[in-house]
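Sequence, please.
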C-alpha cells in the first residue's frame, strides 16, 4: 500500500482544516491500538480490501479490515500516523501477514472520515456524527479471526461504526 495513493487525497481533504495548520500523513506499522502516545488522539475504522498471499498467490476479499489512525496537532503542525491491519492466508501453513489492498474509493472514504475526526478531536469542532460508509465487497466466506491481525490484537470485533454500502 503506497503512501503515494493516500497523500494527495489527504492533502486535498486537509485543506478544509483550520487555516494556518499543516498536516502530513505517514504509515507506522508499530502503532498500538488503544495506546496513543501522550497528546495524540486515536481513530479506528474498518473498510473493505483485498489480500494476496505472497506464498501461494491466493487472493481474498474482506469487509473487516481495520485501520488505526493516531493524530496530533502541535504548534500548527499536524501529523497523522496510519496502520492498516493485515491478514494471512488460511490455506498456507506459516503464511506471512499480508498488507491490504484498499480501493481508491475506500481510501477516499477513510480519509474523508479521518478529516472529520481531526476537526472534532484536534480542532474541537462540534460536527455531530457524520461518518460516510465504506463500499463493501462481495465476500463469500466468513471472517476468520485466526488469520486477522486486528482480531489477534482484540480490536476487530468492537463496534466501530462499521456501516457498509453494497454496490
Amino acid at each position: 500500500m503506497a503512501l503515494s495513493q493516500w497523500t494527495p487525497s489527504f492533502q486535498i481533504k486537509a485543506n478544509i482544516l483550520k487555516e494556518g495548520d499543516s498536516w502530513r500523513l505517514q504509515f507506522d506499522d508499530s502503532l498500538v491500538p488503544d495506546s496513543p502516545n501522550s497528546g495524540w488522539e486515536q481513530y479506528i475504522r474498518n473498510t473493505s480490501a483485498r489480500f494476496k498471499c505472497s506464498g501461494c498467490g491466493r487472493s481474498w476479499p474482506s469487509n473487516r479490515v481495520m485501520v488505526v489512525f493516531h493524530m496530533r496537532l502541535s504548534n500548527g503542525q499536524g501529523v497523522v500516523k496510519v496502520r492498516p491491519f493485515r491478514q494471512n492466508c488460511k490455506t498456507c501453513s506459516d503464511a506471512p501477514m499480508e498488507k491490504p489492498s484498499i480501493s481508491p474509493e475506500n481510501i477516499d472514504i477513510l480519509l474523508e472520515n479521518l478529516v472529520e475526526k481531526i476537526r472534532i478531536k484536534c480542532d474541537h469542532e462540534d460536527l455531530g456524527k457524520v461518518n460516510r460508509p465504506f463500499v463493501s465487497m462481495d465476500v463469500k466466506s466468513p471472517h476468520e479471526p485466526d488469520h486477522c491481525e486486528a482480531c489477534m490484537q482484540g480490536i476487530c470485533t468492537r463496534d466501530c461504526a462499521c456501516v457498509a454500502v453494497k454496490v
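Residues 6 and 80 are 12 Å apart (CA to CA).
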